[in-house]
Amino acid sequence: MKLDKGLMAGSSTMLVLTLLESGDMYGYQMIEELSRRSNQVFQMQEGTLYPILHTLEKGKYLSSYEQQAPTGRMRKYYKLTRKGRELLGEKKSEWEKFHSGVEAVLSFS
Amino acid sequence: MKLDKGLMAGSSTMLVLTLLESGDMYGYQMIEELSRRSNQVFQMQEGTLYPILHTLEKGKYLSSYEQQAPTGRMRKYYKLTRKGRELLGEKKSEWEKFHSGVEAVLSFS
DNA sequence: ATATTATACCTAGATATTCAAGGTATTGTC
DNA sequence: GACAATACCTTGAATATCTAGGTATAATAT
User: Fold this and answer.
1) What topology does CATH give the domain A5-107?
2) Strand C footprint nucleotides (protein C-beta < 7 Å)
3) What is the DSSP letter of B94?
4) For residues A7-24, b (16+ Cβ closer than 10 Å) or e, as one string?
């Protein structure tokens, strides 16, 4: 992830779900989008992303379908399910809590 | 930690170092202080904290000394070294970067 | 034509971090 | 005298990331 490995733990799933909020995407695209939207802060590795996608799909948080690209290549698209949206809500509120905790400690005087 | 375990990874060291910025502390006290300053968001476990302290001391980021409490009990105080302050600076700037990345992704429209 | 790069998917093993659950010992409280 | 709070510590399981590999197709450069 280019950043301290540890920092990413726990937020990767939220970031992936967030990406899918704006539309279905395939894995490779998510990596590019995440980099773009974060202003190049996040360079998620494939070895990180694909297991996350598989786990989320197994848990019914995502569904997937294959679709042929204009180039002729097959791409595996992922779609947020209702359950996935709920999970995203929980992840976001956990992030809020965590974030506010860190900021409180950092700005303590 | 009470929060998603993963979220903590990577920030615990920064939080511990930050506590010591305001003065020497002993382990048990750090757990209470961290909880207090974070408005009860963080309840660090002893099994998390002590290994962190030992690793930081081994790396010369902290030094320690024993001191008797008014109660008569021995407490092991930790103190930030110059090297520790430098590490804290790096950790803080990494947190800034990470934080800005997450916020950028979350607020993307 | 052929080699290289970019696209697109995947997995196994090493590493790092937290937590649960235990242990030791002293002090204060009921 | 028993129990809770204080204060330190370690081991093993669980979780998450990354490295480094693998497979295959399409586009580009030589």
Assistant:
1) Arc Repressor Mutant, subunit A (1.10.10)
2) 7-13, 16-23, 26-28
3) H
4) bbbbbbbbbbbbbbeeeb
Neighbours of B6 (CB within 10 A): 17
Q: Which tokens go with A81? A: 């399910």
Residues 31-60 of A with CB under 8 A from B: 34, 37-39, 41-42
Taking the C-alpha atoms of residue A50 and residue B5, their distance in angstroms, rounded to an integer, is 21
For B16-62, write each residue's pLDDT tens digit. 999 999 999 999 999 999 999 999 999 999 999 999 999 999 999 99
**Cβ separation of B105 and A19 shorter than 8 Å?**
yes
User: Tell me, what amino acid is at B36?
Assistant: R
Mean pLDDT of B92-97: 96
